Structure formats: structure tokens, C-alpha cells
Amino acid sequence: MIYPETSQHIVLDGDTARTRLTDPATSHEAADVSAGSRAASQAAVARILEDASTPLTHEDIIRRGTWEYGYRFAASRFRTATHELEEMGLVEKAGTVRPEGRRTRMTLYALRGDA
Fold this sequence. Notes:
CATH superfamily: Winged helix-like DNA-binding domain superfamily/Winged helix DNA-binding domain
CATH topology: Arc Repressor Mutant, subunit A
Structural class: alpha+beta
Number of domains: 1
Radius of gyration: 18 Å
Helix content: 40-55%
CATH class: Mainly Alpha
Number of helices: 3
Strand content: 5-15%
Number of strands: 2
Distance between the termini: 46 Å
Shape: elongated
């Protein structure tokens, strides 16, 4: 059973519920960091794709973001940010590639030409 007083959320304009009113302060702080991380990771992926001369796979984005740009996001955050940008219409799938030694194809991503 869900009790109404434990399911209340703090929701700011343009934001989604991340914590309950009854959650400890550390949970609220973590939610704030998460929101900043989301925007920052989207900007990072957009920059990586903008600077690339060819479309990139998720692995390319993660490698470049981590080693060449020094971003400190988890691999899953890079992948999620790419898909978020795709949903926003800023990134598009640009084909597939099968790297040598792999049995599966990998999707290539690029900034939309009209973005």
C-alpha cells in the first residue's frame, strides 16, 4: 500500500520528480547533481559529435569523451545522453558499422545537419 504522505515529490518547472519530500537532504543533493550531470553530459556528447569529422559509435563517444576531452561521466551516461539528444532531434542515427573482430553491427551517431 502506498501512503499519500510518502509519495509526495518535489517537482520544479521543467523537471521530473526525483526525490520525495520525506527523503533525507543527501538524496535531494544527489538529485540536484544528477540534473546538472544530465545537461552537462548532453552538452559533452553534442560537442564530441560536432568536433568529429565522421559519425561515431557509442564506444567512440565514450572513448573520446573520457580520454580526449577528460569528461568524467559513466559510460551509461554518455549512451543515455546520446539517446536524449536523439529524442530532442539534435542527433540522428547515421548508419551502422561492424568493427573487425565483432559479430554485431554498431550504430553510428551524428549531429543532425539542420540542428
